[in-house]
Design goal:
globular, alpha/beta, 3 helices
Length: 87
């Protein structure tokens, strides 16, 4: 499925989009595509255990920042960017 198709499906199903793909910032910010919220993992490698730990940290400390935000998670920090107007 294309990137645009995945984002459209997440929007239709009212889901927060979780990805490893850095390119998803383009359709959300530059093309102004709708997004309920996006979580981008910027973690080298594909170790699921590491991503689960980081997701738990996000959910425990920033649960209220998932909707209408673009969240970037690295091993060292969590960056939260508002998506502007309520989408």
């Amino acid at each position: 499925m294309s990137d645009e198709g995945l984002l459209q499906l997440a929007n239709q199903e009212k889901r927060i989009f979780i990805t490893n793909d850095k390119d998803f910032g383009d359709p959300i910010f530059l093309q102004k595509k709708l997004s309920l919220g996006t979580v981008l993992f910027r973690v080298k490698g594909q170790k699921s255990e590491e991503k689960i730990k980081l997701m738990k940290k996000l959910l425990m400390g920033y649960r209220d920042k998932l909707l209408n935000h673009y969240v970037v998670i690295t091993k060292l920090k969590i960056r939260i960017i508002p998506l502007g107007d309520k989408r």
